[in-house]
Amino acid sequence: MHLYTDQELAALVAKGDQKAFGLLVERYGGLIKAIANYHLRATPYAEECVNDCLFAVWRNIGRWDSGKNTLKNWIGAVCKYKCLDYLRRHYRDGCLCELTEDIPAEEPEDVRRLAEELLEGLNPEDRRLFYDHYINGESVVDIAERTGDRPDRLYNRLSLGRKKLRNLYKEREQV
Asked: Which pLDDT score is estimated for 23?
C-alpha cells in the first residue's frame, strides 16, 4: 500500500479520484467530525454538517495552497467555517435553539444593542464588511467580487476587526 503525501493526495482528489478521497477521509475524517461536534455540540445537525464539510473539501481541494498551510489546517479551517455558516443559517431559522438552551443569555434586545455598540467601534468600511459577512451571511468571495477587493485582504480585515471587537468588549466589561 502506497502512503501518499498530502500534496499527492490533494492532487489526486482534485482530479476526481474517489479512492484518494476515501484515503483523505480516513486520514482527516476524525478531525472534521471533532470540529463539527465541537461547534454544533454533537447535535444531530453535526453529522449533516460533517457531510457538508466533506463535500466542501471535495469541491474546493484545488484551492489548497501547500505554501500557505498544511492540508490538515486547511481542512480544519474549511470545516470550522462551514460549521459557522451552518450555525448562522440554522440558528436564523430557529432550528438550533437546543444549542443555546444551556447558555445563559441576555435578552435579544440587549444582545442587539451590545452588538451595535461594539460595531460602532469599527470604521464604516469594516462595519459594512461585518454586517455583510456575519449578519447577512454573504461569503467573503462574493463580497470581494462585489466590491472589487481581494478575498485575502477581506479575511485580514475580518480577523483584525474581530480582535478589535474582543478588545472593545473586554474594555466594556472592565468598566
From this structure: 93
Burial of 150 (0-12, 13-18, 19+ CB in 10 A): exposed
Cell of 146: 462585489
Tell whether 153 and 118 lie within a shared domain.
yes
CA distance 91 to 101: 12
The predicted model gives 41-62 an average pLDDT of 85
pTM of the predicted model as reported, rounded to 2 decimal places: 0.53
Domain boundary among 47, 79, 99: 99
Judgement on whether residues 10 and 93 belong to the same structural domain of the protein: yes
CATH number of residue 151's parent domain: 1.10.10.10
Rounded CA gap, 172 and 175, in Å?
Answer: 5
In a domain, 48, yes or no: yes
1-42 pLDDT, tens per residue?
Answer: 568 999 999 999 999 998 999 899 999 999 999 999 888 876
In whole angstroms, give the CA distance from residue 80 to residue 86: 10
Alpha-carbon distance of 132 to 153, in angstroms, equals 15
Task: Look at residue 1 and tell me if it is in a domain.
Answer: no
Are 22 and 39 in a shared domain? yes
Cβ-based neighbours of 160, under 8 Å, separated by 6 or more = 126
